[in-house]
Specification:
The chain is α+β, with helices and mostly antiparallel strands and 146 residues long. It is 29% helix and 50% strand. A 7-stranded antiparallel beta sheet has the order 1-7-6-5-4-3-2. The protein is globular, with a radius of gyration of 15 Å.
Amino acid sequence: MTKHSEIRHVSYSPEKMFELVADVEKYPEFLPWCIASRVIEKENSKIIADLMIGFQIFREKFRSNVSLDKKNLKIEVNYEEGPFKFLRNKWEFKNFKDGCEIKFFLDFELKNIFFQTLMERLFSEAVKKMVAAFEKRATYLYNDTS
């Protein structure tokens, strides 16, 4: 089992950060190791999506059920099928000084023990790259360069 949680502060509104994370279809444009994204079903507060992740020669597809709580600015991701035994991911966005406090939590375990051991070794660095990718995307989308 691999877990990670952290709190980050960014200079963008909680609403903007919520929208950025909720835009699953755009993940391949900026998220490391995300090769493809396909939304299967989309309603106001729910998305079912397939993500294709890849690293070197490895490629895996998994399906998640994403619950969007726009009123409380929370996103919860629950695993449905693919290479994991389980996967849980939570995001919370709150006002903080001149921006947003982001609480991020990830908990997963892969079915394949070899890949799980490999991920545990690379996990800390991988999560740092993923979080940095969301921050870089926010800068790209929300900074007014005019």
